[in-house]
Request: fold
Amino acid sequence: MNINKNYFDLKESYLFAKVSQKIREYKAQNPNNEIISLGVGDVTIPLAPKIVAAMSKAVLEMGAADTFHGYGDYEGYLFLRQAVCGYYAGKGVRLSDDEVFISDGAKSDLGNILDIFSEDNTVLIPDPVYPVYVDTNIMAGRRIEYMDGNLENCFLPMPNAGTKANIIYLCSPNNPTGAVYNKEQLSQWVKYALENDAVILFDGAYEAFIQDGGLPSSIYQIDGAKKCAVEFCSLSKTAGFTGTRCGYTVVPRELERGGASLNKLWLRRQSTKFNGVPYIVQRGAEAVFTGEGLSQIKRDIAYYLENARIIADALTELGIWFAGGRNSPYIWLKCPDNMLSWEFFDFLLERANVAGTPGSGFGSNGEGFFRLTAFGSCENISEAMRRFKTALD
Reply:
């Protein structure tokens, strides 16, 4: 029996696990100090009433013989897939229900999709980046190339003719930086993928936070994208499903590589390794895409974006450079006084009892930067920024 030695190339612990551990250690030494965490991007607003009503009804259905549901379709119940198609139609994107696959969240599928790709592919990943992209490819032993996100390109790296890759990860709005690609920029990436016979893995987990109508909220709003891109979306931040777990992945039928349909390969993978999302959860997800459901979740998103504005205003007042916060729940700031990321983490925790996420945990280009999230109560966000300003003064 041999261990997969690629795991030895991973960092000792997952970024957010390390953040949580440091907060626990500080609390143990300072039990009377109240910590406000703006680190892990977990939602705090309860599920919308329309969703709760739909799930409650589904629970009762599961308790009656004539409405009980056992195993569902591997790709998800038709009612939810059709609801997702309707949501995309509102963006001007036409999908068929067999191009939509329901999952327990974007994180799972972003890692699992790699099953259908050979391990000898070269992967292009932005730096800084959501750690899951990197770790799952290290686990598989793939060669990783990094594209630089930095101040000069506002953390939105663009294609480089000198770099050749088979798999490309893009995230917009970006986690961790909050930066959003515009149509022209995404068009360049689609053009690059088509010219290089590459596949874009597009993480749109935060698409619902885009308020600027001129910015794309799906890569399929770009001509040609269905021939080169898989899109991953999640209801975790869109509708507060972090503890409920539901998302979806779109694999267009037009997308083929090596003479094979990626749509069919993905269905084959899912039917072997995944038994689907519970019926009760899928009924709740269906309610998200109703008129009443969308209205309710938009209010929640507006609440979080107002929190982001409070953070952005405080940073502007202090003269600190930052990105995000407008079309994203994340604010990416440059550490003051040229502090290193973990140095600023300790400073903020000890001086203000406020926790965030060190930028270096998202890649080498994140060193000297820091991420704050807008997921929290308005009262806590306001108090955190009051402490933040006092500490820096």
The chain has a mean pLDDT of 96. The first strand starts at residue 36 and ends at 37. The two ends are 58 Å apart (CA to CA).
